[in-house]
UniProtKB/TrEMBL annotation:
Protein name per its UniProtKB record: histidine kinase
Residue stretches of each TPR repeat: 128-161
Pfam families: HATPase_c (PF02518), HisKA (PF00512), TPR_12 (PF13424)
Transmembrane annotation, as ranges: 405-424
Keyword Ubl conjugation: no
EC number(s) stated in the UniProt entry for this protein: 2.7.13.3
Start and end residues of each Histidine kinase domain: 451-668
InterPro entries noted in UniProt: HATPase_C_sf (IPR036890), HATPase_dom (IPR003594), His_kinase_dom (IPR005467), HisK_dim/P_dom (IPR003661), HisK_dim/P_sf (IPR036097), Sensor_HK_Regulatory (IPR050736), TPR-like_helical_dom_sf (IPR011990), TPR_rpt (IPR019734)
Top class in the EC scheme: transferase
A GO molecular-function descriptor: phosphorelay sensor kinase activity
Catalysis: reaction(s): ATP + protein L-histidine = ADP + protein N-phospho-L-histidine
SUPFAM superfamilies documented for this protein: ATPase domain of HSP90 chaperone/DNA topoisomerase II/histidine kinase, Homodimeric domain of signal transducing histidine kinase, TPR-like
CDD domains cross-referenced by the UniProt entry: HisKA (cd00082)
């Protein structure tokens, strides 16, 4: 409860400061706009006026279309009067963008074609940008054939310039056109090419939108597994990016797909995630979409009243913001659900609403047709005026085309040669240095492994032989417990030889993890077997063991590696334990799915905690034994890898004492 209260307080404070920051930014932005408007009224300098007009256009372009048209008209007028082609080109493109948003497509195309003729005085990058804008207008207009032609021209220019960003952008647009006309295989081919370029040449986050389009295409093709994969991939790449709109849109799409596949729980998870993200973004269109999907979720689980509530919220919001298509979907859902619960009066009411909304959509289409006819007349008049103006520019363009072309060619060739020589030399030097360093490291490693392997193996073989000779010569004089002690010593020597072999071969860890044999293992018996082997070590340091072993603890794992895990942890507990201290060993069930083992030191030893924690997390070779022991530092890292490979978990708890604990799955 305390955690939830603190969490609510933190969220409320965060939102409070966020609103203050947004308000401050809005006031600052308003003051900046007022200042720019004042400069526009007072300045008479041509360059200053053009820059001010451009800044105001950037501010107003998504807010006040009428004001942006006034600004772009003035930019075009001034640029034409001073014969400044750069500003004239900028004015044409700005005005064309506004007219496209206002659905005045023909006039927008005329301006972009004028800009395209001017672009021949500049570079291919500008030309490709304008052609891409022409394609956008054709897409908005619904003329997909001409849109495809424009995007393909833009792609040719981008490939000629080796501009990978524009190549990816053009491929993505071509894929969308194929998507709109139902050629899904061609759409996938281009979308995947776009996404791959963005991943290889830039960063995965920039490819999220292209990956989202791939998911939508698979969705329409009813290849649901592929659609889910790409939607999820897009969401993962969008997390942490500054594109919350796309993140919410993909989450809603994935939730809709899960509902279609009757994966109700997965759908609800992404619905709630999208809603939480939109609490920050506060986009009305996405909110309507999310409410509609949530209503469909309640319908799927037969909670019709909750579904009706969600549809009503979506309908009210859609009506408020004049979203006719969303209103239509909401009324259809309400009609359906009221009929299911038997409230036919409400069902008939929303059926009537649905018919009214459909009529409104139809009337809007007719109004748009009439508007297009009127615009065509205006466009023809504008074309005549522009043709007269363009004839004045042709002579000036011809005079500077050759000069610009030659200058750009010479400069580009020089830069390419210079960069190529520099990169080639740098690569040669780096490869040489790294090759020499790698050879030296490989030689040092081989020498060290040969020396250690030879010396340690010979010593351990000698110890084993001495024990065997002692047993045979004194067989009649030794008591039973003494013979058992000698046998335990020989077992420890053999296991130490195996451990040394594993440590000397760095690649052995990966090989062993591939050779795990999972069986039913009584982990209590394995623990007792290992404890018997460390009696002498514990007696030597006067370390006391406190045992709490629950019987019949059966796990699903590899007995050899469980034994190695216990061997490492118990040997370390003796090794790092202060003299005359105690160690607590506990083996117990936790629920029906896990068997837990913990080993706890009774005293808090900060330096040891840091060492053990470092070994578990990173496998570093720091060590600090408390007696005459030594340590390689690799053991606990290997323990962590073994436990993970057997689907377990190892962790370190630090309170008044320090505890190493691991869990393994119960055998079932």
């Amino acid at each position: 409860m305390n955690y939830q209260i603190r969490r609510c307080l933190v969220i409320n404070l965060s939102l409070f400061f966020l609103f203050i920051f947004i308000g401050f930014c809005s006031m600052s932005q308003s003051k900046n706009v007022d200042s720019l408007e004042h400069v526009l009224l007072t300045t008479s300098n041509t360059d200053g006026r053009l820059n001010t007009l451009q800044h105001l256009f950037v501010f107003y372009q998504n807010q006040n279309h009428q004001r942006t048209l006034e600004l772009t008209n003035e930019i075009i007028s001034i640029a034409d009067s001073i014969r400044n082609n750069k500003w004239l080109l900028e004015g044409y493109m700005n005005k064309a963008s506004v007219l496209r948003i206002m659905s005045q497509f023909e006039e927008s195309l005329v301006l972009l074609n004028n800009a395209l003729r001017l672009a021949s005085n500049f570079d291919e990058k500008t030309e490709a940008k304008i052609i891409n804008k022409i394609g956008n207008v054709y897409v908005s207009k619904g003329d997909y054939v001409k849109a495809l032609e424009s995007y393909q021209k833009s792609l040719v220019l981008a490939e000629r310039m080796q501009d990978f960003e524009k190549i990816a952008h053009a491929c993505g647009n071509i894929g969308l056109v194929y998507f709109y006309i139902g050629q899904y295989e061609d759409a996938l081919l281009n979308m995947k090419k776009s996404a791959q370029i963005l991943i290889d040449k830039f960063n995965p986050g920039r490819a999220a939108r292209a990956i989202s389009h791939i998911g939508a295409t698979y969705h329409l093709m009813k290849r649901y597994d592929s659609a889910i994969y790409y939607y999820r991939d897009a969401i993962n790449k969008l997390v942490g990016q500054n594109d919350r709109y796309s993140l919410i849109m993909n989450s809603n799409n994935l939730a809709q797909l899960f509902l279609e596949q009757h994966q109700i729980d997965s759908a609800n998870k992404y619905i709630d995630f999208a809603r939480a993200e939109n609490e920050v973004l506060k986009n009305n269109k996405l909110e309507i979409q999310n409410l509609t999907i949530k209503a469909q979720y309640f319908e799927k689980i037969d909670n019709f009243q909750q579904g009706i509530n969600q549809f009503i919220l979506a309908f009210d919001l859609a009506q408020e913001y004049n979203e006719l298509e969303s209103s239509r979907i909401a009324t259809e859902g309400l009609l359906r659900l009221y009929a299911l619960i038997g409230d036919y009066e409400q069902a008939f009411y929303f059926q009537k609403k649905n018919f009214q909304i459909r009529d409104s959509i139809f009337n809007l289409e007719k109004i748009k047709e009439f508007t297009d006819l009127r615009e065509n007349y205006e466009i023809k008049r504008l074309k005549i005026e522009q043709a007269v103006s363009n004839s004045k520019l042709i002579e000036r363009q011809k005079a500077i085309i050759l000069r610009n072309y030659l200058l750009a060619s010479v400069t580009l060739a020089f830069v390419i040669i210079l960069v190529g020589v520099f990169l080639y030399r740098k690569k040669q030097i780096q490869v040489g240095i790294l090759g020499n360093h790698l050879s030296g490291l490989r030689q040092e490693k081989n020498q060290l492994l040969n020396i250690v392997s030879h010396d340690l193996k010979n010593t351990l073989n000698n110890i084993h032989s001495i024990i065997e000779i002692f047993r045979k010569k004194n067989a009649s004089n030794l008591k039973a417990y003494q013979v058992s002690y000698l046998s335990a010593m020989q077992k420890n020597v053999k296991r130490l030889q195996v451990t040394i072999n594993n440590m000397l071969n760095i690649n052995q860890l990966e090989v062993k993890l591939d050779q795990l044999t999972f069986t039913k293992v009584d982990i209590g018996l394995v623990l007792k077997e290992v404890l018997e082997q460390y009696i002498f070590s514990a007696l030597e340091k006067r370390v006391r063991f406190s045992l709490d072993i629950e019987p019949n603890c059966m796990v699903y794992g590899d007995q050899r590696y469980i034994l190695e895990v216990f061997d490492n942890l118990i040997s370390n507990s003796i090794k790092y334990c202060p003299i005359e201290d105690s160690v607590s060993l506990r083996l117990f069930r936790e629920g029906d799915e896990k068997i837990c083992f913990s080993i706890q030191n009774r005293r808090k030893a900060l330096s040891i905690i840091k060492i053990v924690e470092n070994k578990i997390v990173t496998g570093n070779s720091l060590n600090l034994p408390k007696g005459s022991e030594t340590s390689t530092g690799l053991g606990l890292f290997i323990v962590s890898e073994y436990i993970s490979a057997m689907n377990g978990e190892i962790r370190l708890d630090v309170n008044e004492h320090f505890i190493i604990r691991f869990d393994l799955p119960v055998y079932s």
